[in-house]
Description:
Helix content: 40-55%
Number of helices: 24
Amino acid sequence: MFALVLGAVRARTAQVWTVLLLTALATAAAVAGPWFGLAAASRAAAADVAAAPATQKTLSVRQLTSTTGEPRATLDSFANAVRGILTVGDGEPVLGMRQAMTTLRSGTDVEIILGYRDGFCDHVKLTGACPAARGDAALSVRAAQQLGAKIGDPIEVRSAPGAGPLEMRLVATYELADPTGAYWSDNLFRAGPGMDPLFTAIDTFQDRKLWSPTVAYDVEVPEALLRGDNGYRLGPQLRIFDAQLSAGTFHLVNLTEPLLATIARDTSTIRLGVTVALGEVLVLGWFAIGLTGRYTGRDRRGDVALLKLRGSTRVGMLRLTLGQHLVPLLGGVIAGAPIGYLLARLLAGTVAVAEQRWQAFGLSALAVAAVLVGGLLALVAVEAGVLWQPVAALLRRIPAGRRDWRADVVDGVLIAVAVAAVYQARTGGSDNSLGLLAPVLVALAVALGLARLLIRIADRAGAAAVHRGRLGFGLTAVQASRQPGTDRVFALIVVAVAMFATAAGGWSAGRAARAERSTVELGAARVLTVGADNRTELEYAVRRADPGGRYAMAAVVDLASDPPLLAVDSSRLAAVASWRPEYGSVGTLRDAVASVHLPAALPPVTGDRLALRAENAGKAAVDLVAVLQNEATGVAMPVSLGPLAAGEHTVEAAVTGCAPAPGCRLVRFEMVAPATAGGPPAAVPQHAEVTIRGLSQQNPAADILNAGNLGDISRWRAGVSAGALGLTAAEGTLTLTIDETVPVPPSLDNQVYAVDAPLPVPIVLAGPPPQPWQTNDASVFSFGGGTNPVRVAGTASVLPGLGAAGMLVDLDAARRVGADAEGGGTFQVWLTADAPESVVAALRQAGLSVIGADSVPARSARLAQQGSAVTVRFGLLCAAIALLLAAAAVAVAAAVDRRPQADQLQALRTQGLPRRAAVTVAYSGQAALVVAALVGGLVAAAMADPLARVSAPRFTDGWQVIGLPDALGPAALAAAGLVAVAVLGLTAGLSARSLARRVTGGER
Length: 1004
């Protein structure tokens, strides 16, 4: 038997090599699938972890405790108790404690956190000494500016307003070295509604006023546990930890759930997508192998008849058949397995975890077994039909033309499944298995229908053309219609081309979708996250680094605002931002700001002293505080001009920090009662009237306020809250009046502002307005300094950096209105794609620290690790293999039919068929089949687009701010068609060339 098998293999080497090639292609996909899926899922999880904020990768355990004056022992005992329960990796936890306190700022109690953290000085940029002794403290640079405190100054904090003070010594100022890192992920130690925290040494908590702190244990979860390596399930384990910690009066803050959900979605998407794509190519592989067996079986019909005549049993013949098919199948498995592994490694990298490697080996073995068993069953099914035929039927040269009714039933079932898949895709989405199969099932239904239609058309048109003497077209059509198996080859090509077009279109559209999303999320080609003390410093530094406004623009993103806020330098928006039609007109905000008539700017203060001429018409003495703001650093400097007793006076005060240019702008005047010796400023008198007659500076000498600008009421405004401060501008003076019948909130309504920004502030709004705007005037707190009125100058469906809801505002207008009351947000610098590195260097030289950088290509690359994008790459690989399978089927059909077609054409030549017509028929037969099937495949893909709602792959995190690009537009179909023409056309051309040589017998 073995010798017979080898003899059969040697006798039909072309057929053996064809089956081997088809098996190798299917095996390559089968092996690549598991290795690709596991490696891609691990890489997607790693990308999810890398992209997640530190808060989602850190666990925090907290407890409100009593130290009884022993903070170190209390902290260590707390850490030991938590460590015994929360066993997540061997990372070193960060311990800390904090207590809410208050301090005075401009005579008002403000909240401030007094905190201690292990390793504090290693995670900040210190100016001064690290707090080490009891009472030592470090303030942020911004908080020190707000308090007007310098290193060496005393700072008083209280556990509550009116409580006894706790004396601290300011030994350093700090800036966060890595504000987005894990160390600063605990919001207990970040700025709250008050000021930035005040950090101290742990011994400070020995003071009786600090015996009731909140202690914290922060630990970063190892990446391997977040990814779920080796089947570890972090979510359920954390729920167990939470229950155990709650029993011990501890509170676990677990913010990992969004990250774990994202990883789970990516893993599920990759698993489903790889399984579906692999299933499609395996089915096509089995079909192609079976089709090859059907074609090559014609040559074995005579062998089977001879074996039957010699008395061979069906079982013996089946064993011989199985043996000669196993050889190429096993050879294909051996050849395709390493190719599949290398393809998976090339596309997705290696599987790093040992347990997952064994899992990949096991799944690959199962997939290869499926290829082997499925291919063998397909070949046996074809051979079984031959083995059961009588000898007379086997010896017949022309097979029966009657179509098997079972084939009609199979076609009907497949069309019904395609209809169900389309329904599922349109109603339940394309993210489920049947929805993913919808495009290929639509292609299959179209292929089956077109195959029957084209065969009938070719049959009738061929007969008519031959009758009319058009031999080239007629013989080609007749050949296509009457050649057995042509319809199946046609269907295979249609499905393969449709698969490739859909996969290639999805891959191309996915790239475009990722680039568009990255552009919307960033707003510009490159975005730097920078550190600056305030918005004024940010804007000035960017304008100084790029004075022409060609490459850089300052921006502030505040997602905590209501609505979310994007503040930009609108004069540079058109030049720097990557603007999209969804944002509306790029000039709307700029034009709205420019349309507001503002008085000419007041002269900047650049001197070292101020002189105020004013008259106090009240009974009690008052101080008039001029609040200045440096236009380069944004530092606010209150200058107390007083006390002003009753009558007319000229008072002077020293000014520091306003020289040199650009100097300081006058923000506002505040009317307050004189401070008592050693105490805070007293309450504002209930009746006061001060008339300002002039304000000048010295060194250099210059008038800041004169009769012209003091007497112009358009230059001045009171606070936006319920006003108690009256303003009168007349005869070159400005009079400030507080009515004695109206109670005055301290440091709120005792202010008069210099008008240098539009108010209400123009904004561009995306999404519905906030609920309070429907009943009250539109106002926001985002600019700082309380509520600030805004007006909607334009609307947009989407805004860069914010999405479908938020407001766009001019940064310069917002920072002037907010003045020294800084709002929140992330400071950014937007750069054009061609911005030179010298601009970045200039930004650093101007005082900005670059915390992070991002770009459209970098963010697109990160998004390419999401599960939906990963599966598209594997789908494209499987579609390319399907195209090669179709090409192999074309080659097989041509090779098997070459001899009878050559005999027929030579006979026709003997009867007078011109040589040119014979060569035309030799080439056009294959060309017609390939062209018709290729067009059918593109038509099937185009039909699948609206029927199955084919689009770019959806983002696994659910992002849908803008629509996804079309995956099967004319350009995508044309590109896929060109590739298919190159592969199938080359195969058909080479096959037809051999036939043409046989027909002509080497004639020239």
